[in-house]
């Protein structure tokens, strides 16, 4: 039986895939600390504020973003608009006093950060396991397999896959078979689940 990692990087096969709500569920269920290294888009509710709202945890459970970029675009594009360059040496795992740290990426693994680096380079730099959030519906197989392949090429350990949306047994079996990975949970539409659900699933697997 695997041990649940102390630190975990939540990534996804696309933007708007459910990374923030999965991160909130894990943060609440594990009483963890949450960190979003790069926030692209400051109008409205940021991801950190969303996780605060969903978890209702105190401020001590949240670490400030290393980069806060104004536009809801790829980090490299939003940084260009803001007149800054994302420096990969600025990213270090923050100090935290809880038993777990949940890190949420921006977009997918091959989203550019600057002229030379992508999100996956940050993941490799931080050197912690990844959890992949994927859609359950049509189109998920290609995106999921490409994400898994990219992570494996960088030797980033993969905890498993969370499928978000209506249950799809065919896609689940295909991801497990062709992706050689465990689907740890199949989640209903995100507003129908509570913060303890994922950790109950993980308790069974780890």
Structure summary:
The protein is built from 7 helices and 9 strands; from the N terminus they run βαββαββαβαβαβαβα.
Structure report:
Helix 1 (19-30) packs across helix 2, helix 1 crosses helix 7 and helix 5 packs parallel to helix 6. With 206 residues, the chain is an alpha/beta fold. It has one domain (7-205): 3-Layer(aba) Sandwich (Rossmann fold), CATH 3.40.50.300. It has helices at 19-30, 47-55, 75-82, 119-126, 140-153, 169-179, 197-205; strands at 7-12, 33-35, 38-40, 62-63, 67-69, 101-108, 130-135, 158-164, 183-187. It is globular, with a radius of gyration of 16 Å. The protein is built from 7 helices and 9 strands; from the N terminus they run βαββαββαβαβαβαβα. The strands form 2 sheets. Strands 4-2-6-1-7-8-9 form a 7-stranded parallel β-sheet, sandwiched between helices.
